[in-house]
Amino acid sequence: MDMILDWVRWLGGNTAMYILPFLLVISVLVFVHEFGHYYVARLCGVKVETFSIGFGKKLWSRRDKNGTEWQIALFPLGGFVKMYGDTDPASAGFTESVKEGEEMRKMSPAERDQAFFAKPVWKRAAIVFAGPAINFLFAIVVLTGMYLTVGQPVTPPVAGAVIVGSAAEQAGIKPNDRIVSIDGEKVRRFVDIQRTVAVTLAKPLTMDIERDGKIITIKEVTPRLDTVTDRFGFSHSRGLLGIIGPGTGITPEGITAVQGRKGDIVVLLKSRMDKPVTTLRMKAAGDLPEQEIHVRLDSVLNKELVASGDVKRGIVLAQSVEKEVVQYGLFGAVKQALDETWFVSTGTLQSLGQMIIGTRSPQELGGLIRIGAVTGDAAQAGVLALLTLAALLSINLGLINLLPIPMLDGGHLLFYAIEAVKGGPVPEKIQNAALQFGFMILIALMLFANLNDVVQLAK
Predict the structure, then answer these.
(1) CA-to-CA distance for 413 and 435, rounded, in angstroms?
(2) Measuring CA to CA, which residue among 272, 275, 273, 267 is closest to residue 311?
(3) Whole-model pTM?
(4) Is position 111 annotated as part of the catalytic site?
(5) Which of 26, 302, 332, 394 has the most CB atoms less than 10 A away?
(6) 282 by DSSP, 3-state: which?
(7) What's the CATH number for 161-324?
(8) Catalytic residue among 34, 169, 340, 364
(9) Using one digit for the tens of pLDDT, what is the confidence trace for 229-252?
(10) Residue ranges per domain, the chain?
(11) Region 200-227: what's the mean pLDDT?
């Protein structure tokens, strides 16, 4: 409990760095999502009564010339668009009556023509689908703009070091190997390796490796399933391959032995320059055991260390250490943004599937605290990092809303699909029961995700 209170006090003292960026990103994504519903509804001739960012008490509102009330509410963790004729923002029911003064009257034909419930099923489906769709479009536009203007900084997919005893070592991967493809998918950056292995967990992989100008195919590379804890205390299951990227820094002060020998570490390092493989024993944090890694020390890359003998100067790992900035034209930027969106979408669905079947712990499902922590870190890293995170969260928001759970957009689309097939709407009694069930599922998932955050912080 004390740890949770300490964390809350810390977060309270870092409001500008964590809470404000989180609220900004969430509000923008909610606006984008709801604007998708609003815009397509207007295209389909539906009158929109309310466009709200947030729930609860209204803090600000104004009504436009079309009769739509635009408002900002007290709790900004969501929003809604209420269509004309609907009895609630979730379109769970509708009415053909209109209040006029103290009396109720039936809608006129012109008024009914503006009601959401009176539109053909394909128009209603288009309006509902527009919310998630614009989240994907928003992400693609943001990523395309970044790739087109500043390019995409990437760390080369090179094994700077290989951990002794790891899956990579057992598969025969060596320092300076460049991973060209995994399971037939081309690898352009080191993060592609990390993402693929993290999502596939312990699934055997086939890798094409470039070594000394030749392509070598390594089959049955099986990552090891491990649980890692981030700096906030949240645990994640992921596959570990056991290679270290070329951008990782290692100082001689962190080395306890070189090729099994102890003594003057700098002298020992100098003696191993340009050797095919050198084994370094590394100090470990806390109570963890020391770890050994295989590296390939290059005298040219480490000439300053060799010349000065400075024990504080880091060792350069691998032949490719500088981040490469990949520049794209318009079509290349769009393609890369589409590829990124597809990768995040399929990876998210795969992770959800793993939670359902039990190969990934459901405790990885994070709530508001975890999202806020990640958003705050991105904000401190700079505008580009925050934009990238906003794009990734937008993809996940669109994807989650497409799940066929009543109360979500995907649940409504499921009802409309049934209606289109059977030629008539699902009975209102069944819809209401399903929506109540969906509401309970969503509340349970929200409680579970946020309880996960609290429990993991308390460990």
Answers:
(1) 13
(2) 267
(3) 0.74
(4) no
(5) 394
(6) strand
(7) 2.30.42.10
(8) 34
(9) 655 555 666 778 888 888 666 777
(10) 2-44+119-145+384-458, 161-324
(11) 85
